[in-house]
Amino acid sequence: MVSLLGADPNTYKSHPLHNDEREYPETNCYADILIELLHARGDDPSAVLGRAIRTDFEGDQWTFFKPDPRDVEALFGVDIHESQPYRSLPDHIVEQITEGRTLIVELDSWYLPDTAATAYGREHVKSSAVMEAIDPGSRRLRYFHNRGLYELEGNDYDGALRLEIEPGSDHLPPYTEVVSFDAERRLSGQGLKDAARAVFAFHFERRPKTNPFRRFSAALDRDIPRLLQETHADYHAYAFATVRMAGAAFELCASHVDWLFGRDGTSVSEALMRIAVGAKALSFRLARRRPFDHAEMVEALAVEWDDAVTRLGVLV
Q: Does the pTM of the predicted model rise above 0.85?
């Protein structure tokens, strides 16, 4: 087996950002895999979450938060950019890992055993994963996905890596990114904190110009009647793209503020956590699929956002 870091799914311990005690132990597939990749490498992924302060309501969904690739490179010397798959995926993965790099690949969750409670063998859902190790001879793959490190083999290996798809068929190739590491540009200690603070200031200046929760409240006036007429699956898709996306992003932002400012940022991180808790509560109310007055619940989140931004203006 060719391995990037020599990590073993049987002994691997996930980063505390993925603890069960959090409101959102899983955030989204892309943020989660970068958290675990950096953690497995020995870095603290809390440093690269500053862009979360820019989380915004974008008309029909909230921002899909990803750590900014520029931040990941500036802080840890990790470069991520799109690659062109033109051979079989196992060939590309072996090549990159052998050279000390790796690939992020959009896989089909139908073939990912770690999604047994949701999509595995039930639903075709694209999801990003980081390739950690591969053994083409025995058809085994180890990969970072969601909040952990997992292994698949056999038919799942063939399906996830598209070995059953004929060349030239009408299926699009998967989206892939190459990840390379420059240890000489990897920051730590006070140098990392100082650089992360500058990065956060950059993103804070580009935060939403108006309160996103008040805009979201107006959209809910429009959306709730439609959701009451649609299916339970439609609701889950809506909830993931809206309240769950917002809540998970602001919980990550709270963790970043704690890491970056310590006690000085406690009042900010507490306000951001109240947003995360409130967004989760709102998702439960929406799940009942009954009419309710959402305005008060969303206005409470808007007040916390205003408070957090005001207090950050003093810190940054």
A: yes
